[in-house]
Amino acid sequence: MSDTFHESVPYPFIQKLFQIMNGANWLTFQVLTRRAERLEELSPILHWTDNIWVGVSIENNDYVYRAEHLKKSGAFTKYHSHEPLLCPLPDLNLNGIDWVIVGGESGPKARPSVTSNMSQFGSVASLSL
User: How many domains are there within the chain?
Assistant: First the structure.
């Protein structure tokens, strides 16, 4: 697994990847990134088809800004991954977002997440209604 929009991934590679995804229109590709600024920068010169979904990771309020970069992309389907959701996201605006993934961490070093407290989880769920 890697971040397609990482600064070390050259544009020609990303362009080739998009050509492959465009050609496989019977599949749905979910491209998740933490590099929302680069996503926005490259989006106008990429060929978006409806089988390429793009999302950004937003684990706490420090990263809510990624959503605004995502909304400016050319993707037909835009989503957030809140995995792990470490705190409530009062500044999050889900307008223009098609899908939200919410989860926690597991294992011996797992950080506490909102998903372990269902009453807090409800605050995110209510945003999407």
Answer: 1
C-alpha distances in angstroms, 5 versus 8, 11, 43, 77, 114?
Answer: 8, 9, 10, 17, 28
In a domain, residue 3? The reply is: no
Q: What is the pLDDT of residues 48-95, one digit of tens each?
A: 999 999 999 998 899 999 999 999 999 999 999 988 888 888 889 999
Both tokens of 106, joined, read 């597991």
Q: Does residue 110 lie in a domain region?
A: yes
Give domain status of residue 71, yes or no: yes
pLDDT digits (tens, 9 = 90+) for 118-127: 555 555 555 5
Please report the sign of the dihedral spanned by the C-alpha atoms of residue 43, residue 45, residue 28, residue 5. Answer: negative
Alpha-carbon gap, residue 58 to 30, rounded angstroms:
16
| Domain residue limits at 53 | 11-127
